[in-house]
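Example record for the data management plan.
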Amino acid sequence: MNVSFEPPRGMRDFYPEDMVWRNRVFDAFRAAGEAAGFEQYDSCVVESYDLLARKAGEEVGEQIYHFEDKSGRHIALRPEMTPTLARMVAQRQKELVFPLKWTTIAQCFRYERMTKGRKREHYQWNLDIIGEESAMAEVEVIGAACDALRRMGLADGDYKVHVSSRRFLGELLEKSGIAKERHAQVFLALDKRGKMPDAEIAAMLKDGGLGEAEIEAAFGIMDTSDCSACPELAELFRLAGIAGFADRLVFDISVVRGLSYYTGTVFECFDTAGEFRAIFGGGRYDSLLTTIGGEPTGAVGLGFGDVVVTELLKARLGENAAKGRKGVAVGFMFAGQADAALKLATRLRKEGKPVDLALRAQKPKKFFSRADSSGALEAVFVGPDDVEKGVARIKNLETREERETCL
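Corresponding structural encoding:
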């Protein structure tokens, strides 16, 4: 039987040309997190199934990879990092000094139907602030995400962060006379608005038990465009103005995120052209720690996957934009110059330059062709005369200018 050379469905291999993009994204994640004062943490890639079921309900089993280990323990590949974060914080809640500002880049697995921008495996940058009630927490995580997009090369006008509030939405529903037990049905309708005709949404609300007056009120709420009556959102916009990214925020009542997970402000970032899925999303989840036995603690979190943003970067910047020239390629004509080439490469590396050293003798044309295609900024080809003189020439592969260097 022939073995398939393809990775398992929904999973990815990263060849060198893919790693260039991944590194560009990850470097921006790390730099933005560090610039905003977030501390790094990490955990194992497997998690207790019971922990995930507490957070998402028993139906989580249909969405994740789970199995019994050799000792009969029910475990799963993590579909996200937040339950693990909650477990880690709850474990040391009496010892930790709050507020916490933690960040990680976690590989996550989710068994679900694949669409554009969605895989069964992805990396996700998480930013979480735990132990802070004010909107400063939301501003810090959203601001750091905007900074990461800037570091990746996107312009401010390439995206918008859509914000809303679960608390504000619940208040609007109650004032409109919609019973609390029917709020979840309205949340689902809001999530579908723009993706299906209003007539179908009305039918969905009717099937969910809403009367004609409630359905009319629900559609009125769906058209809400002013959040000035919501103190937490008004403060978020005010602080974002001071932080310099209010122009990238837009109030959007349709942003609801999870039905039981978030308690206050919620947000999702989209490209302004509307070509891709959400770039990142998150919100306030003040009740999560209590669901696993911890003490009530205010928290805000953000999840930023690598798949969609990489597709967006390639579309906006070009497929080859991440492969900038850097380092030096060093080659030699005959075996007799190998020692001199190795000595030169060693010296350049000690000086802090990345060096790609040829492993065997090559003809000049082949060496410079490979050096050019590899993305090297400079190239040195050592020949017999160079060794005799003790001097070689470094060529800049962009400007074609040359300078001498000692061997």
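Summary line stored alongside the record: The chain has two domains: 16-43+81-317, 328-406.
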